[in-house]
Amino acid sequence: MAVVFDFDGLLMDTETTLVQSWQAEWRHHGLELDLEDDFWPGHGGETAEARYGRLAAVVPGFDRGISHARRTAYRDRLHETLGFRPGILGWLHEARESGLKVAIASSSARTWVLGHLERVDAVGLFDLVVTGDEVAGHKPDPAVYLLALSRLGLDGSVAVAVEDTAHGVKAAAAAGMGTIAIPNPYVRPETLTAADLVLGSADQMLLIEALSAVACVEDRL
């Protein structure tokens, strides 16, 4: 059996650092970022260019290159001390000790995901890392999960995905997987009702307890 984790917002709270970096860039131009104004796209694809476009439309003489360098430098400073979300490291160690396959299926680029894992010396905790630059479609397209399952040599019926967003849950379910949702700070729990189990944090229960709580998973263990 395998446990397949999303990365951004789930393993590490890179969604908060994302928001903080854009808020800082908006403030640099004397503006206030409205997070309710279509900031979250509902998919796992890249949205930076659309956001720079919004700035360019209202900031005279806007320089995209300078803006990007300033914003990403700010976010890099935030990432210097960023670790796993509460309870996640315990789940990863528990999975390894239980003999489960452990993978990542992320819509982000491989350099991004591996860079963070290397920073906290955690690459070895995963049997497999599959990323968005290896597939044509981003979540809720199930392509990244299907590729992960193929490389693991497993059917979706013997794998559980851990996600933080509705589009991630939809992608995993479309790949035939059980789903556990742990929403990031910018996702309302009520949007994740399609998941088999919704938790506020990974430290609410042991991984094996969470897996057993997922419908039909108990028969797979």
Give the radius of gyration.
18 Å
Q: Report the principal-axis shape.
A: elongated
Order of helical and strand elements: EHHHHEHEHEHEEH
Strand order of the largest sheet: 3-2-1-4-5-6
Helix content: 25-40%
Strand content: 5-15%
**Overall pLDDT metric:** 93
First and last CA, distance:
7 Å
What structural class results from the helix and strand content? alpha/beta
The biggest beta sheet reads: 6 strands, parallel
Secondary structure tally, helices: 8
- Identify low-pLDDT runs: none
Number of strands: 6
List keywords for this structure.
221 residues, 6-stranded parallel sheet, elongated
Topology of helices and strands:
Elements: E1 2-5, H1 14-28, H2 48-58, H3 64-79, H4 88-97, E2 101-105, H5 110-119, E3 128-130, H6 143-152, E4 159-163, H7 166-174, E5 178-181, E6 197-198, H8 207-213
Parallel strand pairs: 1-2, 1-4, 2-3, 4-5, 5-6
Helix pairs in contact: 1-3
Describe the structure.
The longest helix is centred in the first third of the chain and has 16 residues, at 64-79. Helix 1 (14-28) packs across helix 3 (64-79). 38% of the residues are buried. The chain has 8 helices and 6 strands. The chain is of the alpha/beta class. Helix content is 40%, strand content 10%.
Condensed summary:
The protein is an alpha/beta fold.
